[in-house]
Design goal:
alpha/beta, OB fold (Dihydrolipoamide Acetyltransferase, E2P), Rossmann fold, 10 helices
Length: 432
């Protein structure tokens, strides 16, 4: 078996070693380790490999808490101490900004982190009947596979949700449409836990009764989704607690549908909102844009601090729920929502929104390249950019700095997804 010295981690948390100029990406290896590995895919410039043995161990290596870690693909970094995970993510951010954007921030922000376990309040669980593994499986995919991992618990789900995995197997396995139910979407709110069953054919009366009994026994709310996410509807119980999350620091509560986008980690989201508000520094009388605003996760705190906010989002449903939350929280007079496809933003369409003193951008993984390219001479003097993809942040940073005249004041990592390779970050740009 070949032996390598691991230099660093890549963006998927694989250890990188080098042999005669070729990069070897080794699952489960950590920087500084001397390891034995076995390659399972060879290309002219790189190889993908399994870890066989650790001959010299990193001080950051720990025993994974989850017994399913080596099988389940939901986590990639449980074998790495949490503070070392965060340091690795900060390096991914800085490397992306430099190698892609050719920019370094003037200041590195302190990282944002929270509890490492039981944090995941949103998840999509696969469902599959596998007789050879005992019947119904419910969980995340196996590593590098489309198969559903045979898991009995999950350390990153809230404990009360992890405890539902085995009862859910029994419930789904007893339904007449068990093989026509491919996924369960989870959403944990402030007042209730919602489970969305993706059904490819209608339930029978006996199925409905089983689901109602399960909801009563385990204190959950079931939704049914016959087609796309917008078709999800509350099935049982119909009256009852609403699905919402809170931002207590700003005296806000936002209702959402279980298939809406919300941050998976409520505690870290609160810290993120606080950091974003500190960096944006909204002032009474300012006019601020919140681009890709979603439900108003940043829109409403900006308004609560006294500024006038225009929230722009491509989904009419999210905009409608944002308006309802603004009204429910007494902020309608300071919030104006609009529907627009920001991936097709032009200088003319952006100018039509009027002048903004400041802007917050929180795009999906694709980034906000058309938006930043559309910024004109009267662009906001300060932009706070919240990113879930260091590569697209770095690409957009290059435009903001080299074309639009901004300075990258600061940037830092956010550990929204502990034990995964997912890197979220926040950056601040200013122009004279």
């Amino acid at each position: 078996m070949p032996i390598g010295i691991v230099e660093s981690l890549d963006h998927e948390a694989r250890g990188i070693a080098r042999q005669e100029g070729k990069a070897i990406f080794i699952d489960g290896a950590l920087p500084g380790e001397k390891v034995e590995y076995a390659s399972f895919r060879r290309k002219p410039n790189y190889e993908l490999a399994h870890l066989v043995a650790v001959m010299r161990q990193s001080s950051a290596r720990v025993e994974p808490r989850c017994v399913h870690f080596n099988i389940c693909g939901g986590c990639a970094m449980q074998h790495m101490e949490p503070s070392a995970q965060l340091a690795a993510k900060q390096r991914v951010l800085e490397d992306s900004l430099w190698h892609i954007g050719r920019v370094r921030p003037a200041t590195i922000l302190p990282p944002i982190q929270g509890e490492a376990w039981g944090y995941r309040h949103r998840a999509r669980l696969g469902v599959r009947c596998v007789p050879s593994k005992g019947g119904m499986l419910i969980g995340f995919h196996e590593k590098r596979s489309s198969y559903i991992a045979d898991i009995h618990s999950c350390a990153v789900l809230p404990p009360h949700v992890s405890a539902l995995l085995m009862p859910l197997r029994e419930l789904i396995g007893g339904l007449s449409i068990a093989e026509r139910l491919p996924q369960i979407e989870l959403a944990v709110g402030e007042h209730c836990t919602a489970l969305v069953l993706r059904i490819l054919q209608p339930l029978k009366p006996a199925d409905e009764q089983r689901i109602r009994a399960f909801a009563d026994r385990h204190d959950v709310v079931f939704y049914l989704q016959p087609k796309g996410p917008d078709t999800a509807f509350r099935f049982y119980p119909l009256p009852g607690p609403r699905l919402s999350y809170t931002l207590p620091e700003y005296d806000l509560e936002l209702d959402f549908r279980p298939t809406d986008f919300t941050q998976v980690n409520h505690a870290v989201n609160r810290l993120l909102v606080r950091r974003a508000m500190y960096l944006l520094d909204p002032q009474p009388g300012e006019r601020i844009a919140d681009m890709f605003c979603g439900l108003g996760n940043f829109t409403l705190p900006i308004a609560r601090l006294g500024a006038n906010v225009v929230g722009i989002e491509g989904s009419p449903g999210l905009v409608q729920r944002g308006r309802e939350s603004a009204a429910a929280n007494g902020l309608s007079e300071r919030v104006d929502y609009g529907v627009a496809n920001l991936f097709e933003c032009t200088e003319a369409s952006l100018a039509a929104l009027g002048r903004f003193d400041k802007m917050l951008i929180d795009p999906p993984r694709e980034g906000a390249i058309e938006l930043v390219k559309a910024l004109g001479d009267d662009a906001p003097r300060r932009i706070v950019y919240v990113s879930c993809n260091p590569a697209t942040l770095a690409r957009d940073t290059a435009v903001l700095v080299t074309v639009k005249g901004y300075r990258l004041v600061s940037a830092g990592a956010i550990n929204m997804f502990p034990h995964t390779a997912h890197v979220e970050s926040i950056a601040v740009f200013e122009r004279p």
